[in-house]
Design a protein that fits this description.
With about 250 residues, this protein is of the alpha/beta class. It has seven helices and eleven strands. The two termini are about 15 Å apart.
């Protein structure tokens, strides 16, 4: 894992997007098509905004996989990740993608895990754009995360810290309104990606970042598994990196 620290969220997001876009262009230069994973949440605002403005990407050859989604949430809900990705990413691209595999966890989440999981199992993920939660989660794999499951997608229980983060970021009117379950891409599936671009701003993530970067690899800090990936870059702003012992400052 390579750690890069930036003075601002905008600089962090632009650098992460440029890195991921370069990897995506390289994949498209070598293959007929490419596949990526995209995350959501406040941590991805700047990165996704910059990624939609990257030039020289033939998006008609790119398949996009959805990282996670709340169980039982309508696409019209302000916190819907399908709504988020449609409005903040897909609709802002210069042209249509080859395919966008959204997760619909409203009616039958188990069947949805199987449906999109079968598509994902056949794909080679060239770039995964992810973040880290305040509790150290990777996707919605809260601690203690399942590091063993080979299933592409899992139905997971959200812990109190995760649900408090979602409420604190303003996605829900109350803590009680935050769903208790979600569909999440599994840890092992994320780790199969050829490259991982992890973008994490804000001081509230500093303890989780320290655990992920400087602590032992453990299911209690799910994002610590990124230490074992051979091509992972962690993009931070100064506040998110404030508890680290060192890093590459840009």
């Amino acid at each position: 894992m390579k750690v890069l620290i930036y003075d601002s969220k905008e600089g962090m997001g632009a650098a992460a997007a440029a890195d991921g876009a370069a990897k995506l262009r390289e994949a498209l230069s070598q293959n007929d098509a490419a596949s990526i994973i995209v995350a959501t949440g406040a941590s991805q605002f700047e990165m996704l905004d910059a990624l939609t403005r990257e030039e020289g990407i033939d998006w008609s050859r790119v398949t996009v996989f959805h990282l996670d989604e709340y169980v039982g949430l309508s696409i019209d809900h302000p916190a819907s990740f399908r709504k988020y990705l449609k409005e903040r990413f897909e609709d802002r691209l210069p042209g249509p993608v080859r395919a966008f595999h959204y997760l619909n966890a409203e009616d039958d989440p188990e069947a949805e895990c199987e449906r999109v999981g079968a598509l994902l199992a056949e794909a080679r993920i060239d770039v995964a754009f992810v973040g880290i939660g305040e509790n150290g989660h990777l996707a919605f794999n809260d601690p203690p995360a399942d590091f063993e499951s080979e299933k592409p997608y899992l139905i997971v229980n959200l812990d109190e810290a995760c649900r408090q983060q979602q409420f604190g970021e303003g996605w829900f009117p109350s803590f009680e309104a935050v769903p208790r379950q979600a569909i999440s891409m599994s840890v092992r599936q994320i780790m199969k990606s050829a490259a991982i671009i992890c973008t994490v701003p804000d001081e509230r993530k500093a303890a989780a970042v320290r655990g992920a970067v400087e602590g032992e690899v453990t299911p209690q800090v799910p994002a610590s598994i990124l230490q074992e990936h051979g091509n992972c870059r962690l993009y931070l702003d100064g506040p998110a990196a404030s508890l680290l012992g060192g890093g590459t400052v840009s």
